[in-house]
Amino acid sequence: MTDYAIPLWGWIVIGAAIAVIVVLAFIAGRLLARLHQQQRRRQEAMTKRNTSLDESVTTLARAMEQGQCDFSEGALRIVVLLDHRAEPEKPDYAAKYPALHQMYERIKHMPTHDARKQFPKKEIRRMDEEREGYERELKDAILKDVRQLREDFREDKA
User: Fold this and answer.
1) Distance from C-alpha of 74 to C-alpha of 96, rounded to nearest angstrom
2) Where are the alpha helices (DSSP H) in 66-120?
3) Helix/strand/coil for 134
4) What span, in angstroms and rounded, lies between the C-alpha atoms of 156 and 26?
5) Most C-beta atoms within 10 A of its C-beta, which of 66, 70, 75, 101?
């Protein structure tokens, strides 16, 4: 059996390799900690955003139920707010609240705000009559959706 001794340069290489491994492990640990912190912050921001969106949705739903907001305006806003919720698995809100989405689909092409002002009064009146007809037609179904939406998004729900 031969007695094999590691020369000095071999120990230096082994020491340097161990030092590199320790430094890389430290760097990997720090990066992993940063990643976890970033994910936690992102989750908190997403939760905060969803909470804000949910408050807006329930406020609009309550206003619609109390007659303080037109069904068409409420439907436009609620559908967009629901679409902006950050969720890992997006529920099918169109199936869950069909009347709101039906109203949205019927009126989304109609201009609002400044774009509306560019149309002649006769055309605006025609669009208003069309929109109001949809509101009358879908009133009961929209109220049902609004009540269900308020139940689904109630604040004390865990």
Assistant:
1) 16
2) 71-83, 93-96, 98-107, 113-117
3) helix
4) 44
5) 75
Residue closest to 73 by CA, chosen among 84, 60, 83, 56 = 60
Which one, of 53, 46, 75, 70, lies nearest residue 146 by Cα?
75
Tokens of 151: 């139940």
Distance CA 88, CA 80 (A): 18
Q: Which residues of 104-115 are buried (b: 16+ CB within 10 A; e: fewer)?
A: bebbeebeeeee
User: How far is 26 from 105, CA to CA, in rounded Å?
Assistant: 55
Q: Report the distance separating Cα 77 and Cα 53, nearest Å.
A: 11
Tokens of 51: 């909470």
**If pLDDT is split at 50, 70 and 90, which confidence band does 156 have?**
very low
Take residue 79 and report the two structure tokens written for it: 């559908």
Tell me which residue has tokens 């004390």. 156
Closest alpha carbon to 149 in 106, 93, 80:
93
Q: For 1-36, what is each residue's pLDDT tens digit? A: 566 788 999 999 999 999 999 999 999 999 999 999
